[in-house]
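Margin note from the TA: students keep mixing up input and output lines. Inputs are the sequences; the output is the structure of the whole complex. Example:
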Amino acid sequence: MTTADARTPASKQNDGTPDGAIPDDGAGKSIGWHKGYVQGSRPDLRVPVRQVHLTNGKDVTLYDTSGPYTDPAIDTDVRRGLAPLRENWIIARGDTEEYAGRPVRPEDDGVKHTSPRGGLRNLDAVFPGRPRQPRRSRDGRPVTQLAYARRGEITPEMEYVAIRENVEAEVVREEIAAGRAVLPANVNHPEIEPMIIGKRFLVKVNANIGNSAVTSSIEEEVDKMTWATQWGADTVMDLSTGRNIHTTREWVLRNSPVPIGTVPLYQALEKVDGRAEELTWEIYKDTVIEQAEQGVDYMTVHAGVRLPYVPLTARRKTGIVSRGGSIMAAWCLAHHKESFLYEHFEELCEILATYDVTYSLGDGLRPGSIADANDEAQFAELRTLGELNTIAKRFGVQTMIEGPGHVPMHKIKENIDLQQEICEEAPFYTLGPLTTDVAPAYDHITSGIGAAMIAWWGTAMLCYVTPKEHLGLPNRDDVKTGVITYKIAAHAADLAKGHPGAQEWDDALSDARFEFRWEDQFNLALDPDTAREFHDETLPAEPAKTAHFCSMCGPKFCSMKISQDIRRQHGGSQEEIEEGMAEKSKEFAAAGNRVYLPIAD
Amino acid sequence: MTTADARTPASKQNDGTPDGAIPDDGAGKSIGWHKGYVQGSRPDLRVPVRQVHLTNGKDVTLYDTSGPYTDPAIDTDVRRGLAPLRENWIIARGDTEEYAGRPVRPEDDGVKHTSPRGGLRNLDAVFPGRPRQPRRSRDGRPVTQLAYARRGEITPEMEYVAIRENVEAEVVREEIAAGRAVLPANVNHPEIEPMIIGKRFLVKVNANIGNSAVTSSIEEEVDKMTWATQWGADTVMDLSTGRNIHTTREWVLRNSPVPIGTVPLYQALEKVDGRAEELTWEIYKDTVIEQAEQGVDYMTVHAGVRLPYVPLTARRKTGIVSRGGSIMAAWCLAHHKESFLYEHFEELCEILATYDVTYSLGDGLRPGSIADANDEAQFAELRTLGELNTIAKRFGVQTMIEGPGHVPMHKIKENIDLQQEICEEAPFYTLGPLTTDVAPAYDHITSGIGAAMIAWWGTAMLCYVTPKEHLGLPNRDDVKTGVITYKIAAHAADLAKGHPGAQEWDDALSDARFEFRWEDQFNLALDPDTAREFHDETLPAEPAKTAHFCSMCGPKFCSMKISQDIRRQHGGSQEEIEEGMAEKSKEFAAAGNRVYLPIAD
């Protein structure tokens, strides 16, 4: 969600992006809200909220993912990066140390030869903001929120999300300790506003960004990230695969108020010029450390794509559709060897534990078509992800499990039920699922349907799908459409799960609708600008904003107006009318529906 | 679905509509299909299909709702209207007669005073096409498809839909006879291509059109109708409430290849200048006959809004949100009387039976917000609709039941289950339902989620919701977006219900996707034009149409390409590879997952 105010800072960063200027949001129109903070137990623990002011004097408080960019009191600058909110919390724990870190090499940005501009560089050259050294566990023991939770510690991060989710901090600690929730927070990403992913909490939404075969500028990716979080993205995955992959990620991380996820395999493949068979554990491990030192909060690891499973995809209609999955399958077959990710998984756990990088165990064999849904290959991999989940927990690494894909509605529930059983209720993180294959250009909708259902049944985070899925690279508008569609799916699921307080938002908007408080409707809407724009298309005049009807039916046909008149025409306050009508309805029922004496007679 | 060819005829009708010219669909690009016909048991029974020609030489046959407009061999002209396809079938039954019919009055078009241009007119003046007299039952006995089905007759209409749905004609007859399906086909609307609405058949989609407080031209409404059917609308409701309401409807009917539904109460209210309390049974009855003579195929009747139920809405968050419902509630309270629709229901049945107008029993007390879902008022009305359904059946009138509305996901199933039980499995026809209130401007999506779910569970037809819901009048683009969204929901439900043949469409598109047959993907897509446009945004060049990758991942990262290479790099035909891989996977399983010998070694 956002407003004119909300997007103004983003426009600072938008200069010269191919997408052009940010759509005019008629500054001054959306003045119906401000950024607020809920004070925690310590001065530096302030949880941001979106305070919507209604014309009836009431306030509605909504979850806010937009970061400091929407706080007019904070002067943000993408070249400086965000303030390291969590730094003192991390230092205070005393279990981490700064160290020189791995030198950044030209290959990290996809530059093969050592040009004058190439050669060794330090992070200052990569990012102009405050100089920083990477941080890691002082003694190799896990510095993860999972480890703290098991020890019974309620970290500031846990208190932060407890306030955000409106639950007891102890509930947060328990869910993390039990592995039913993750709080992705790399010690090298102190800029984030902590959030939690688990079925007992609000359903979260991830937005993917990243440059690709088609080049896009670093500024553009940073802008896409802030744009996505302003519309409600809870995490962002940087799936860049082209040039400047390291530098792009650094800029995104330093400016991101939400956890950042990646797929290290993509960068590793770049380092071997896209020749899957040339991948090695060493190159992959080095890439993971490179990204962990930068501050990546969670990493997709396709360690479940085992050699024996590859043949199971032979009869599939669409084979292997996961990039990571197909790369690992190619490697396995080329070498006739078991996956190096599977074989080195414990070593990988040790690395992730020392930075608190959260696992997102990838579903490399997810179905890419309705025909392939819930097949042997998919569930064989899921069982392996179950094994790996258990191992990761042993090493104190937070873990979530990725899910499909293309799945028809009647096969969706089996996915979440099986995952919850096999993976001991670890958070499920699904892409859609898409409920049909026939609507390219509308896959945000084919998948939004499946996403809402699987989230209702227990999926903790939804990876968005944009209208460009299967066709091309999402632009700014696609990112917005994808995020809004998935916020709808997530909130619909929160309602269906009966999440405490979820319905207050719907109730506030419906009250405004029934009472013709148009400005309040707009300000409470998931997308205030488009709602206002659609209304004004047919009734632009200001008076229409208070009119007791809209252009759909006109005054004569407005059911809500008639409905209100029915109540009013019998005199007295609405409360009295309601009393009276309710009384009458009781009388009527008592009289066995035989006789009815109308109101106010 | 449509293509460039498909829309060309519509553009004829588009001249001078405010929406302006039809978006360029790059004529010649979408040449991958043609209009075909399946020959029935008689020469004049030819069922239209959309034949998609794939580049691999195969053909895919899809359901087609676009009417003669997409047949280049037929020269359509909106001033002449469509050919009366069913006329001979109706005449041949010998149970109907032509008659003078009710004179068309100025008030029918909302013209109060008798101007020179006003006064009595005949249909010729209303519509320039072939002169016609209305038709009705010769002896007052029902001339409905229900009556014929009960008699064991398989009408040409039933054979037509049987071919369309790819089922036995006897199945169609049985479902209609049992009241589990309706075949809306007024004897005065011979132009339609018969279709069926019932849970054992493909899920259908209705699109609403109609001018309103905001004036829109007659041509524009006719164009919206053809536009909607070209994208896949199975029926269209004309909800006009403004001027020229009679004439607009006549033009729509004479040019519509799909059944047309209306809410007669809207026109009746116009005749009393919008003063609900001045409505009378006589005015309403006269309006119903007026519309039945024109050929309206189904009518929404809010006879379930009984006086005693109105107080049940008093404590609601959004009261009564159905226009018809609020009008009847206002009337009931103003007169302190039971609804004249409820009290005259049997007389109304007699009228509808003599034209074969199908009932769509309106849910005037549907919930207008999440808070009001599944409440006492809603279900009290539903029980009354059950009573009325039984009465309608006794009079041989085909009947479907309308459903909500705003309903959170966890309360949706109760709606369809209760309706099926109370209404003896009469077809359920729902608006969405919308699964959250917080996304005005995106209610096609909030409702598309609920629509897909309730259709999976047995709803027979879905009434679309456009992005303008709650905000304004849908324009041409909104109509398209609404129809496409609902075709997605309907098809997703057909898949989940395991409707025979439904998945062939998905399979054909997924095969094309995996084999990089981009043109086939576009031509099989629900919206070929937008799919092609999105693809070309990032890779416009023609070669990209055969490229073994797309702009999303580029050649190095295309999982499908890698997936195919995996199969090929071991030599032999794809079939052989699959054989080999499958063999190995068996061996592997047999070996207890201990050892794995790679393919082709």
